[in-house]
Amino acid sequence: MSFADARRLAIEHADPVEETETVSTGESAGRICALDVYSRVPLPPFTRSEVDGYAVVSADLSTASPENPIELLLAGNAEIGNPPLTHPGPGSCLYIATGAAMPSFCDSVAMVEDTIKVGNKVRFTRNVASWENVAHSGEDVSRGTLIARRDSVVDPRTVAVLCAAGVDKIKAYRKIRIGIASSGNELLHPGEEISAGKIYESNSTYVKAELSKFCNVSTKSYGFIRDDMEEVRRMISRMLTENDAIILSGGTSAGEGDFVYRVLEMENPGIVFHGVSVKPGTPTVFAMSGKKPVFGLPGFPVSAMMIFRTIFLPAIEKMSRERSAVRPVTVTLAMKTLLRVGYTSLIIMRLVRRGSTIYGYPVNGASGSIARLLDAEGFAIMEGNRKYADAGEKVDAYLFSESIPESVFLGTPDEIAETFILNLVSHPAVVKMDENSVRSFIIEIVPDITLVSGTTIVNPEDYGNYTTAVGYTVPYGFYSRDAGLEVSSIIKSVSAGKVRLVAISGNDAVASAFIEYLSGFADDAQGMVDRINYLPTREACLSSLTSGENDLFLGKFRKSEDREVNFIPVGTVNYSILVSDSYVKNHDIEKAVEKAMEATRELAVS
């Protein structure tokens, strides 16, 4: 099913709740009015003074001026909160506080700033118009005026007006009840001891956090459901009994251990759609049990988050009658973006504001790569009617955060670059890229800051108007569980297939430097290159080494590495943090440079 049709069907099947409840006005912010609400009293409820001053008959002061002041007898005080006094007549005045009821037979208030008190008399230095500085009863709101319409959201302003109009309770639609659970034998709660094959569950917590933003939704967590047909059936039945809708994470694929969709097939009317042409999030399921929606999210965290945001959240908004405040912003693609032909692509993006334009950089990764969401400010929904979207194209993006950086760092920061970034006054958006790819994209992306690596010292002028802020060399070599190994013997052993070698990536500066180094070992060079296994991260490489899956890891030296492994140095890689001239002109980088230089002292092999 297409992404657009899935979204449409989910919304069409979600009915708003019709039941109502009485809510005190003080607790009504964010709730939806089920009935029109009218003012019980006029506002203001009585005619009152708008200033501190003196209540007068305006005709008494018709000729008053600084040159011709007029004195009136002070006959009393009209205090706030008391019933209105009666004015004694011409030639007299009454002191009156702001908000106090106007005395009978007065028609104006002279501001205290335009008077001088002399004994039991008050001297007035200017005249006043009839009803000057007076607010009449009902001038703001008449009795019976409509204050809040049915189906409108009660915001804090409405709460204030309702209270002022004497409304102590309203009829609101009751909150919709949503049950949340995740299925899978592999799931653990954060804080529990982790073991092989287990993962910490995050999808249900994410969904609950998103729904906590709603004033008209209440959620209940049902924990984890074991991968057992009867257990899944029993829990779904209970959740449907207790809620208006339920959200399930996992068990939506077509594997032998996926039972959620099988149980949903037994409901009436059952599954509305199962499988959506969208990446990430294809194994999405939506079903109905009577009039109750069942939202089935994929198990991978990024897939679950994106499907919830784009397909299911609009349906929940309809059920709760809450309208989303999220509006798309126009984004210009900063680089060519890969699309999946025949699918709708949900492209997670780093966003950078440059002047009045927001630029988007795709953040690539697997459906289970949840941490990349921290590297993004938003996402775009793009149709897969072609293989690529070109740089310069404009798309609509939906924000994860209102905070959009105003500068770009290109590359994958190491410890030195991270130190540099953390000590800048404002942090740039980090557009991560393989080390050997950075040089090719500097001219296209024109980053404010970039990390360039190679076997030779970088010349910043090769890339335009850049300056080297920090330059340093990083040792690289072999990590081994065994001590006392020599580089030449390692190369022969790997080439002969006697030991297993792993490295981070063929597009990594270390791998490139080592291949260049191998030119001095003509007999063994190609055999060794062919036998290097590649894993995506340093953590994966080291874990494979310490677990015994591999015998050697080719990587950068890190002094603080907390592992029971030995380092055999081979050579060095040169790194340069380049900063554009315009960035240096407009930003203070002195502290960042100083702290980064301090961090380079940790790079020496002891």
Would you report the number of β strands? 36
Q: Which range does the strand content fall in?
A: 25-35%
Query: Termini separation (Å)?
Result: 60 Å
Radius of gyration, Cα only, in angstroms? 36 Å
Number of helices: 14
Domains, number: 5
Q: Largest sheet, if any?
A: 8 strands, mixed
Named at the architecture level, the CATH assignment of the largest domain is 3-Layer(aba) Sandwich
Would you kindly provide a written description of the structure presented here, covering whatever features stand out?
- The protein is of the alpha/beta class and 606 residues long.
- It has five domains: 3-13 and 175-320, MoaB/Mog-like domain (Molybdenum Cofactor Biosythetic Enzyme, Chain A), CATH 3.40.980; 20-43 and 139-173, Molybdopterin biosynthesis moea protein, domain 2 (Alpha-Beta Complex); 48-135, Molybdopterin biosynthesis moeA protein, domain 3 (Beta Complex), CATH 2.170.190; 329-399, MoeA, C-terminal, domain IV (Beta-clip, Beta Barrel), CATH 2.40.340.10; 407-606, 3-Layer(aba) Sandwich (D-Maltodextrin-Binding Protein, domain 2), CATH 3.40.190.290.
- The protein has an eight-stranded mixed sheet with strand order 30-29-31-36-32-35-33-34. It has a six-stranded mixed sheet with strand order 7-4-6-5-9-8, with no helix packed on it. A six-stranded mixed sheet has the order 16-13-17-21-20-18.
- A hairpin with a 2-residue loop joins β24 and β25 (357-362).
- The longest helix has 20 residues, at 301-320.
Give a topology summary.
Blueprint: H1 3-13, E1 20-24, E2 37-38, E3 48-49, E4 53-56, E5 70-78, E6 92-96, E7 108-111, E8 115-118, E9 121-124, E10 134-135, E11 146-148, H2 156-164, E12 169-173, E13 176-183, E14 187-188, E15 199-200, H3 203-211, E16 217-225, H4 229-242, E17 245-249, H5 260-265, E18 269-274, E19 278-279, E20 285-289, E21 292-297, H6 301-320, E22 329-333, E23 337-338, E24 344-354, E25 357-362, E26 378-383, E27 388-389, E28 394-399, E29 408-410, H7 415-422, E30 429-431, H8 435-445, E31 449-454, E32 466-480, H9 487-495, E33 501-503, H10 509-517, H11 525-530, E34 532-534, H12 538-546, E35 552-556, E36 566-580, H13 581-586, H14 590-600
Parallel strand pairs: 5-6, 13-16, 13-17, 14-15, 17-21, 19-24, 22-25, 29-30, 29-31, 33-34, 33-35
Antiparallel strand pairs: 1-12, 2-11, 3-10, 4-6, 4-7, 5-9, 8-9, 18-20, 20-21, 22-28, 23-27, 24-25, 24-26, 26-28, 31-36, 32-35, 32-36
Helix pairs in contact: 1-6, 7-14
